[in-house]
Design brief:
The protein is α/β, with parallel strands linked by helices and 341 residues long. It has 2 domains: 2-138 and 279-310, Response regulator (Rossmann fold), CATH 3.40.50.2300; 146-277, Rossmann fold, CATH 3.40.50. The chain has 12 helices and 14 strands. The protein has helices at residues 2-20, 52-68, 84-96, 113-121, 146-161, 176-192, 208-221, 235-246, 261-269, 280-295, 323-326, 329-335, and strands spanning 26-29, 35-37, 40-45, 72-77, 101-104, 125-129, 140-144, 165-171, 196-203, 225-230, 253-257, 274-277, 313-316, 319-321. The strands form 3 sheets. Strands 4-3-5-6-7-13 form a 6-stranded parallel beta sheet, sandwiched between helices. Strands 9-8-10-11-12-14 form a 6-stranded mixed beta sheet, sandwiched between helices. Helix 3 packs parallel to helix 4 (113-121) and helix 7 packs across helix 8.
């Protein structure tokens, strides 16, 4: 099923370019009669600028922009810390620049709604990616089926702990992607692992240090914890630090989400047993393609005029990476060396 989803995504990418490649604004005509296209700005707005995950997304966006033409300019904006209100302020500042399109990963599902609506009212195409704000009016969403993402984590962690025991979830409440992952995790366990109990949900506010603190408190309060799943990329390193300090790394299975240099190192060292990953590069690539398509209407009828036709949602797949998988140099190379921004 995952393979089919990626095939669909690839086909959509391939079909998107010819569909809207001729739709750019024409600013002037050279002496030879060739058309020169005016510069167009597309902004990516994220809730933690500097995160390696979003650097990968932005790399995909930049490569898509390069295919579309030199007239397509990109930027990456967002607060350094996980804060929905700060991200909303950043989005407002981006709107002032009047870009042709905005790609936005929402810190939570509601805080950005007003700003996204403002952008749309000014004919700025808005595409959601990674973490959705479904009631915002955004034109399309590109990401992962996060419910299945959580289910994949549940199946892995249950296998690792031997089918019985207490487990916990690390989450930032209000983030719809994480809540869907947590739901998929808990439902899979409820339906398939009767001897496994999800006994706690920890709010670490998307911070490694806070994750270490809340996980250490959990481990001390409940020595029967056999596994912990972080629904975001910062929780697993924090949980590993707490387990290391308490000397229980060998007794607790830690499963993370996404990948970064820190997560890759911990997987190779065996401090984290696994991490569920999607493909942030392709998510950024396709989001840029959709933003361009939405900004350049064609004769194809659109569900969101005056914007161009785009699908309402595109999902990619997910998988679990482990230290064993990363022992293959070819596989490891795929996840190492995050792109510079």
């Amino acid at each position: 099923m995952i393979r089919k989803l990626w095939i669909i995504l690839t086909v959509l990418i391939a079909l998107s370019v010819p569909l809207f490649a001729g739709g750019a604004e024409e600013s002037q005509t050279g002496n030879g009669g060739s058309t020169v296209k005016g510069d167009e700005l597309y902004s990516m707005v994220v809730f933690t600028k500097g995160a390696e995950y979003f650097n990968w997304c932005y790399a995909g966006m930049r490569d898509a922009a390069a295919i579309l033409g030199d007239h397509v300019k990109t930027e990456l904006q967002g607060p350094a810390e996980w804060d929905a209100s700060l991200e909303a302020r950043t989005l407002e500042q981006v709107i002032v620049k009047q870009p042709k399109g905005i790609l936005v990963a929402a810190a939570d599902e509601t805080t950005l709604n007003s700003s996204i609506g403002k952008a749309l009212s000014q004919n700025i195409a808005v595409i959601g990616f990674d973490s959705d704000a479904p009631e915002s009016g955004r034109l399309s969403y590109v990401g992962t089926n996060n419910y299945d993402f959580g289910a994949a984590a549940a199946q892995f962690i249950v296998d690792q702990i031997g089918g019985s025991g207490d487990v916990a979830v690390v989450i930032v409440p209000g983030n719809i992607a994480q809540e869907e992952r947590a739901a998929g995790f808990k439902d899979w366990i409820s339906e398939n692992a009767p001897d496994v109990r999800v006994v706690s949900e920890l709010n670490d506010e998307g911070d490694v240090a806070k994750s270490e603190t809340v996980c250490a408190a959990l481990f001390q309060a409940n020595p029967n914890i056999k596994g912990i799943f972080s629904t975001h990329g910062y929780g697993a390193p924090g949980a590993a630090a707490a387990a290391r300090t308490l000397g229980i790394l060998d007794d607790v299975v830690i499963v993370g989400s996404d990948y970064s240099s820190a997560v890759i190192e911990l997987l190779i060292a065996g401090d984290i047993e696994g991490s569920v990953v999607d493909d942030p590069y392709l998510i950024g690539f396709e989001s840029m393609m959709l933003a361009y398509q939405a900004a350049h209407p064609t004769s194809v009828p659109s569900a969101n005029p005056p914007f161009g036709h785009v699908p309402p949602i595109i999902y990619g797949g997910c998988s679990v990476i482990t230290g064993e998988i990363l022992s293959d140099p070819a596989v490891l190379a795929k996840y190492q060396n995050p792109p510079a921004v």
